[in-house]
Design brief:
By secondary structure, the protein is mainly beta. The protein has helices spanning 6-22, 29-41, and strands at 76-83, 88-94, 99-103, 109-126, 145-156, 163-165, 172-189, 202-205, 220-227, 235-237.
Length: 247
C-alpha cells in the first residue's frame, strides 16, 4: 500500500529538483543534489500507483497518420510528471528485454531511480579530442567517431541508490531491462532541447565480441560511432497515474 505521505514526498522531490537545478553552478549545488538523492531514493513503484508491467497498448500510436509501428505496443513508454525550464521528471516503462540504446545528454545532469524490475546500465564518458591512443577500427568505415571511456556496467534494482550522470561523468549510457519488465523514475536537468544544443544523439560501440568467455575489464577506452535512432526502438506515451505534482 502507498505510504500516506507519498504525495507530499513526490511533491518534495519535484520542489527539491527545482531548487537543485536552478543554480547547478552555485556553491550549494552539491548539498542540494545530495538532498535530492536522499528523497529520490525513498520513492517506490506503489507510491506512484504503478505495478510491474511493460508498456501497455495505450502507449501505441493511434492508427492512421502515425509512424510505421502505429498500433504496435512500443518497447518503451514514458509517463510525463512535470517539466520546467530547468528540469523534467517522468517515468520510463520498459518491456522485458527492451533496450534504450546508447545515447548522450549534452550539458545535462540526470538521476535515475529503479521502481521495479532490474536494469543493466552501461555508462561512458567522452574523451577530449586528440586523447585517442589508437585509430578507429575498420568497422567505422571512415565515418565520424568519438573516443570514450567505458566506465561501468552494473545492475540496478529498486534497492539500489539512484544512478547519476553529469555533463562530464557517465553522460552516455545504455539501459537494458533484464529478466522481465522494468520501470524507473527519471530526472533530467535541463530537459532535452535541440534549439539550445541539447539534442539526443545515439551511438554504437565499435568493438567485436570478446575473444574469451569473460567480457573485457572496465574501465577501458573504446570507440563510438554516431548512428540514427534504431528502427526497432521508439518510445510511446502513457498517462501518469500517480500523485499530482504542482510547481
Amino acid at each position: 500500500m502507498p505510504r500516506d505521505n507519498m504525495a507530499s514526498l513526490i511533491q518534495r522531490v519535484a520542489r527539491q529538483a527545482r531548487i537543485t537545478f536552478r543554480s547547478p553552478a552555485g556553491p550549494a549545488f552539491g548539498e542540494n543534489l545530495h538532498r535530492l538523492q536522499q528523497l529520490l531514493n525513498e520513492v517506490r513503484a506503489e507510491d506512484l500507483h504503478l505495478a510491474p508491467r511493460g508498456p501497455s497498448a495505450a502507449a501505441a500510436a493511434a492508427p492512421g497518420g502515425g509512424p510505421p509501428w502505429a498500433g504496435v505496443v512500443p518497447p518503451v513508454s514514458y509517463m510525463h510528471i512535470c517539466e520546467t525550464e530547468n528540469f523534467s521528471m517522468g517515468v520510463f516503462l520498459l518491456r522485458s528485454g527492451a533496450c534504450i540504446p546508447l545515447h548522450d545528454h549534452p550539458g545535462m545532469n540526470g538521476m535515475l531511480k529503479v521502481l521495479y524490475g532490474t536494469l543493466r546500465i552501461a555508462c561512458m564518458d567522452t574523451l577530449p579530442a586528440g586523447a585517442a591512443a589508437a585509430p578507429p577500427p575498420p568497422a567505422a568505415g571512415g565515418g565520424p567517431c568519438l573516443r570514450a571511456l567505458f566506465r561501468s556496467r552494473q545492475h540496478y534494482t529498486p534497492a539500489s541508490p539512484p544512478c547519476l550522470l553529469s555533463p562530464h561523468t557517465d553522460n552516455l549510457h545504455q539501459i537494458d531491462a533484464v529478466d522481465g519488465p522494468a520501470a524507473f523514475l527519471d530526472i533530467l536537468a535541463p530537459p532535452y532541447d535541440p534549439q539550445h544544443g541539447r539534442d539526443c544523439h545515439y551511438y554504437r560501440l565499435l568493438e567485436g565480441p570478446p575473444a574469451g568467455a569473460e567480457p573485457p575489464a572496465l574501465p577501458r577506452e573504446v570507440w563510438l560511432m554516431e548512428t540514427p535512432q534504431a528502427a526497432d526502438f521508439w518510445c510511446g506515451g502513457e498517462p501518469y497515474p500517480g500523485p499530482r505534482v504542482c510547481l
